[in-house]
Hints:
By secondary structure, the protein is mainly beta. It contains two helices and twelve strands, in the order βββββαββββαβββ. It has helices spanning 87-100, 153-161; strands at residues 11-16, 19-27, 30-41, 46-53, 70-78, 107-114, 122-124, 131-138, 147-152, 168-176, 183-188, 192-193. The strands form two sheets. Strands 1, 2, 4, 9, 11 and 12 form a six-stranded antiparallel sheet that branches. A hairpin with a 6-residue loop joins β7 and β8.
Amino acid sequence: MYLPGKRFAGFESTERQGRPSLSVAADRSVSILRQRFAPSLTDFGQLAFSWKVDALPEGADLSDTEHADAAVRILLAFDGDRSKWSPRNQRLSEMSRLLTGEELPYATLAYVWSNQGELGSVIVNPRTDRIRKLVVESGVGQIGHWRDYRRDVRADFIKAFGEEPGPLVAVALMTDTDNTRSRLHAWYGPLTLEPR
Length: 196
């Protein structure tokens, strides 16, 4: 997926330390690989995923618009009642539609590797509160190692947004280093989503 005005680095299918993976060589770029669900999913439970990085974006801060880069993210996009949105979120969604041809999802939950965030903390996107990031890895201690996760999507959504999740409309991988002008390599292992 290309974003207007952003440099893109593509994903490549590879194997890393015996694991099948998708790799991306980020270079001051934004890389998004998305899978939409049609129809959307209403029966979802545990999400399993893994990733590995060789560095973190220098100076990144997910709570600061100007430095909100992350070496790896898993994004889950949900549908819902947009009439609950603030006028600001309505405007942002319309702007997104004009720039990309798509409205913002009702809510997006992102699992992230943060430079300094506390594990388990939720970071609200500085531009819109309809994107919230759950820190599942933090700091440089595990750089160079595969990290494996198993998450309860419903529980994590409720923790992040304080409401029940609507239908799941898409999942995406995202590596971005454009704001910090960083270079790094990231690998994503297979992702599975089990029904409840």
